[in-house]
Structure formats: structure tokens, C-alpha cells
């Protein structure tokens, strides 16, 4: 059975435990990179990651973009939204549909 995880600062991700997600309170780039690799190898189909945490490991995330699993989804952090998650969604929709239908 596939699992879902969330990675980011404690304030942003703590509430996700109540939804049944595996919560990883991590903000150090090296540890996030290793964590993503470990989760990908252990049946995690979806990894939610806060935008600030994702910015620290963009190269790692890009390596998984062409893989079927895991799907890495950027979410806003408690301190706000950088817009990177929405840009990634626009890019994915444009790639799948052939045009940006979200604008």
C-alpha cells in the first residue's frame, strides 16, 4: 500500500499528522535530500513539501519529476506562499494538455 508524507518546518507540517500523513519536520537541505530518496524507495507515492523546503533541494526534486512515483507536490508554508507551487502546477498542466488552461 502506498503512503503519503509531508516535509517542512514544524509549524507548517505538524497538523498533517491528524490526516494520517507521515510528517517529517526537516529544514536542512542535506537531510531533506536524503529523506526524499528514502521515502521514494519505501512506497511513498506522494510527498508534499513546503515551498521553502523545496527551494533548498530543487535539484533533487527535479530528478523525480520524470518518474511516475513519487509525486512531489509543493505546498505553501505557514509563513506564506512563494508561488512556486502554482507555477509547477501550471507547467504540469501545460505539459499534459498542450496549453495553459489555468489562466
Determine the mean pLDDT: 88
Query: Any idea what the radius of gyration is?
Result: 13 Å
How many distinct helices?
A: 5
- Overall outline: globular
CATH superfamily (homologous) name: ATPase, V1 complex, subunit F
Determine and state the CATH class: Alpha Beta
CATH topology: Rossmann fold
Which architecture would the CATH scheme give at its second level? 3-Layer(aba) Sandwich
Strands side by side in the biggest sheet: 2-1-3-4
Explain the overall architecture:
- The chain is built from five helices and four strands; from the N terminus they run E-H-E-H-E-H-H-E-H.
- By secondary structure, it is α/β, with parallel strands linked by helices.
- It has one domain (3-97): 3-Layer(aba) Sandwich (Rossmann fold).
- A four-stranded parallel beta sheet has the order 2-1-3-4.
Write the layout of secondary structure elements.
Elements: E1 3-8, H1 10-13, E2 22-25, H2 29-40, E3 44-50, H3 51-56, H4 58-64, E4 71-75, H5 84-97
Parallel strand pairs: 1-2, 1-3, 3-4
Compact description:
With 103 residues, the chain is an alpha/beta fold.
Features:
103 residues; alpha/beta; Rossmann fold; 4-stranded parallel β-sheet; ATPase_V1_fsu_sf
